Amino acid sequence: MIIPTLRYTDAPAAIDFLERAFGFERKAVYGDGDVIHHAELTCGRGMVMLGSTGRGDPQFDTRKSSAYVIVADPDGLHDRAKAAGAAITREPAETFYGGYAGAFRDLDGHAWEIAHNPGFGLNDDGNIVLPSA
């Protein structure tokens, strides 16, 4: 399993955004006031970890990251992200590879691409079914 880790200037606001936009749930949040030392948010079988910038190991304060998110309903996630305050950078549309994708930036400028990718199916639980090797 690969778990993206992100740093935010306002980590509590980022947690709220990720809950509203994606439906993430708080698994663990460790912090003092507005400073989040470490947080784990889950969505289905996926997870993202995050914390406040300027805390912990400085090698992880990269400033900007990106994530590719495979979902059954990119339009629905696009609408939720927009309503939660995301800056839409590409409206969902057909892609050259036969998929359907859109993109946005979150409150700290991290790029998120949301897609239905025909190369990766989703089961009834919304989890990725990888193609056979």
Summarize the structure.
This protein is of the alpha+beta class and 133 residues long. It has a single domain, classed as Roll (2,3-Dihydroxybiphenyl 1,2-Dioxygenase, domain 1), CATH 3.10.180.10. It is built from two helices and ten strands.
Describe, in plain words, how this protein is organized in 3D.
The protein has helices at 11-22, 74-83; strands spanning 5-8, 25-32, 35-43, 46-52, 66-70, 87-94, 100-105, 111-116, 121-122, 128-129. The chain has one domain (5-125): 2,3-Dihydroxybiphenyl 1,2-Dioxygenase, domain 1, CATH 3.10.180. Helix 1 runs antiparallel to helix 2 (74-83). By secondary structure, it is of the alpha+beta class. It is built from two helices and ten strands; from the N terminus they run βαββββαβββββ.
Structural class: alpha+beta
Stated plainly, the CATH topology is called: 2,3-Dihydroxybiphenyl 1,2-Dioxygenase, domain 1
CATH class: Alpha Beta
* DSSP strand content: 35-45%
Low-confidence stretches: none
Classified in CATH, the superfamily is 2,3-Dihydroxybiphenyl 1,2-Dioxygenase, domain 1
Portion of residues within helices? 10-25%
Question: Key terms for this structure?
Answer:
alpha+beta; 2,3-Dihydroxybiphenyl 1,2-Dioxygenase, domain 1; four-stranded mixed β-sheet; 2 helices; 10 strands; 43% strand
What is this structure's SSE topology?
Blueprint: E1 5-8, H1 11-22, E2 25-32, E3 35-43, E4 46-52, E5 66-70, H2 74-83, E6 87-94, E7 100-105, E8 111-116, E9 121-122, E10 128-129
Parallel strand pairs: 1-4, 5-8
Antiparallel strand pairs: 2-3, 3-4, 6-7, 7-8, 9-10
